Amino acid sequence: MMTNFRNSVLSLITETSANLPSDVRRAIAAAIEREDPDSRAGLSMSAISLNIDMAVDRVAPVCQDTGMPTFFIHAPKGVDQLFMKREIEEAIAEASRTGKLRPNAVDAITGKNSGNNLGCHVPVIHFEPWEKEDIEVRLILKGGGCENKNIQYSLPMEVPGLGRAARDIDGVRKCILHSVWQAQGQGCSPGFIGVGVGGDRTSGYELAKKQLFRRVDDTNPDHDLQGLEESIMASANTFGIGPMGFGGKTTLLGCKIGKSHRVPASFFVSVAYNCWAYRRLGIIVDPADGSVKEWQFRDENEITRMAKGEGMPLTGKEVVLKAPLTEEEVRSLRVGDVVLVSGEMHTGRDAFHHYIMHHDLPEGVDTRGGVLYHCGPVILKNEDGSYAVNAAGPTTSIREEPYQADVIKKLGLRAIIGKGGMGPKTLAGLQEHGAVYLNAIGGAAQYYAACIKKVTGVDLLEEMGVPEAMWHFEVEGFPAIVTMDAHGNSLHSEIENDSKRALEAAG
């Protein structure tokens, strides 16, 4: 009986959430060296490197969005898969209770959070037989921000910016380049992509996600696909999207392509985009007692400490903001300014934006001149009833585009903090109402959690669950970059337009 299997899986979940693999660390370290340390890209990578170290030290999530836990398991004949499934579910529930995973499983229709990452078809577990004697368990934690940038193409088609893509390797190339471009900073670039060529719509995406279990530094055994991977890496890194979509030299850190047979009527190219917080590990398990025999994606020459300094270096030119903010303060800001926010900050994500369009704020909450943070934190409740923030990086803001301008007006907000930027409706709202969009560093959940000095309250917790509730924080020295100002300027639009020209040149 595999009495140790549950603990082995719990260790896998904990390590995957908190400790990036060796090959990913090396890829990120190389990207740091390529960027100008004084540029927006360099500042971002500096914060990312410190965040990676902090997550290990705290044994806490690298990024607060631990996604939908997805397991790929190879098992020999005779292993009890039902037992393994039950033990995995118990391990998932325990990891959720202790803050190693954020409770992400919500009912598809009602949005009700189960609170423990268990639900219909959650977690995702793929079992495959093999002839080896041991059990292989691999786990990927892929956050919603990058999952939303997954994309699938059906050839032949017209690819925006690149023209006609036929059912050949050049058509595949055009699809992959477009997939990188469309992610911009919303997928927390620099990123990694897995690509599945062929199959049907379902198996194509599964094949793409499986490519993310290849090592960043491996070589594709298929000569044509190897050449395509190298071509994509060279072209994508001319786009100038850079870390967080701020501009820079590194947009893509890895490209892995696999293929499968298809039916004559269909030719799908499926792309799984993964952010820089590339969390996937594996273990080899003894089928006799369930103990870990070997870890995968861990090397002897691993870079154990990533940060060379103390994170985002301060120059003295930062603008210090203390909430609540005045319109005069906000209108003095310009795209490119680095700000340090202190004072009261409120969180609000998808469910909150929908809610507040139809309801008033909870009693006693005043957001006039306030700062709204697009964040779904990992929060633990202490024995005395107070709350501790375990992870609190920004979520992708573009999902709130249909609501944001109206919410700014209704609540009297002066600053929105998120990642990836927002669209023209929000930009117009910022200009009209005297507000600003501040881009935090995506995935830097520990870096920003350290800026939160106190949880002062929470509203809508029972109705929405931990990630979607309206949390109230007292923050100090919270760093972000102005990327959309109150004068109609948007760094995101500028980078998108410039990278579109580079995409067209790559065609």
Automatic annotation (TrEMBL):
GO BP annotations, alphabetical order: generation of precursor metabolites and energy
* One Pfam family linked to the record: Fumerase
Residues of the Fe-S hydro-lyase tartrate dehydratase alpha-type catalytic domain: 8-281
Q: Can you give the residue ranges of the Fe-S hydro-lyase tartrate dehydratase beta-type catalytic domain?
A: 312-494
Q: Does the keyword Mitochondrion apply?
A: no
Q: Which UniProt keywords apply?
A: 4Fe-4S, Iron, Iron-sulfur, Lyase, Metal-binding
The record's catalysed reaction(s) read: (S)-malate = fumarate + H2O
Q: What class of enzyme is it?
A: lyase
| Listed Gene3D superfamilies | Fe-S hydro-lyase, tartrate dehydratase beta-type, catalytic domain (3.20.130.10)
Give the protein's cofactors. Answer: [4Fe-4S] cluster
Q: What is its EC number?
A: 4.2.1.2
Q: Which GO terms describe its molecular function?
A: 4 iron, 4 sulfur cluster binding; fumarate hydratase activity; metal ion binding
> What does the protein in this record do?
Catalyzes the reversible hydration of fumarate to (S)-malate.
Quaternary structure and interacting proteins, as annotated: Homodimer.
Which family is it part of?
A: Belongs to the class-I fumarase family.
Descriptive protein name: Fumarate hydratase class I
